[in-house]
């Protein structure tokens, strides 16, 4: 039943993404009619001087931001889906498990200490530091939650909260030690999340990370499904669970680290979207991963639209918007998990 439903869901999500993209390009400090946006898009990225300011607004300002939001939303949703399978807990999320905070802390350290002194591989210092922070946070949370050989919902959440507090304190210390006001504003961007700094020349790396990461995880859909049967069951079916978990943790950390390096810490996308996708197409990862990716792209595109327009002309960090939605959702999930601890934990 879910297999027959999946193509329909993917088509509907693709249509929703197109509609949200048109709305994102049309709405903002300068509002345009949808027909005008479509005319600008059909004219191409270099429509000539006759296009006026509309072409510059759409192609130079809003389109890079829209694309980055879609890529980050899709990547965080995919990473959240995989983390939930690895720890067999539907409350797992890149933000709640400290991965996003770790990536932010790593990136902020490089920015304040001086990315120029650590620059290599064409400006990869910040993404590499974000990856290292993301990986370190995930390993720390997993090690603390698995102490004693078992892992429960409460222990996982407490470990994630503890790691987040430590990383938050580290980021605050860096903020205090920052020498220049520009650095302070940059650190605040990392802690709250935002897409306002998106540029065309910065879209390649997060897009590659999303496509390669999602492609590899789709190839690993069957082993991910085996983990749902439990560690002993997966091992009986021939899966080396310890090695597989380690490899997928590294892959998920790489995707999260690269994305957070360009968007800051945006929470709860990887919690809400996989849960909603699972309710529609089931737990099989071959269908779940693409549905979660499209759903995450739609969700973050709409969240960024709210962030840009709700308090116009002021702009709300998109991480604040996702937290306002995700916080109550997390509390509902936490209350629900206490009734189904065997499934959630």
Structure in words:
The chain is mainly alpha-helical. The chain is built from 15 helices and no strands. The chain has helices at residues 2-26, 34-43, 53-86, 99-113, 125-145, 153-177, 181-192, 204-219, 221-227, 231-236, 241-263, 269-281, 285-309, 318-339, 341-344. Helix 4 (99-113) runs antiparallel to helix 5 (125-145) and helix 12 packs across helix 13. The protein starts with a helix and ends with a helix. The model is unreliable at 116-122 and 341-345 (pLDDT under 50).
Share in helix: over 70%
Radius of gyration: 20 Å
User: Main sheet?
Assistant: none
**What characteristic shape results from the CA principal axes?**
globular
The mean pLDDT is: 83
Terminal CA distance: 27 Å
Number of helices: 15
* Tally of strands: 0
Estimate the strand proportion. Answer: under 5%
Low-confidence stretches: 116-122, 341-345
Structural class: mainly alpha
Order of helices and strands: HHHHHHHHHHHHHHH
Labels describing this entry:
single chain, 345 residues, mainly alpha, 15 helices, 0% strand, disordered C terminus
Describe the structure concisely.
The chain has 15 helices and no strands. With 345 residues, the chain is mostly helical.
Describe how the helices and strands are arranged.
Blueprint: H1 2-26, H2 34-43, H3 53-86, H4 99-113, H5 125-145, H6 153-177, H7 181-192, H8 204-219, H9 221-227, H10 231-236, H11 241-263, H12 269-281, H13 285-309, H14 318-339, H15 341-344
Helix pairs in contact: 1-2, 1-3, 1-13, 2-3, 3-8, 3-11, 3-12, 3-13, 4-5, 4-6, 4-7, 4-11, 5-6, 5-11, 6-7, 8-11, 8-13, 12-13, 13-14
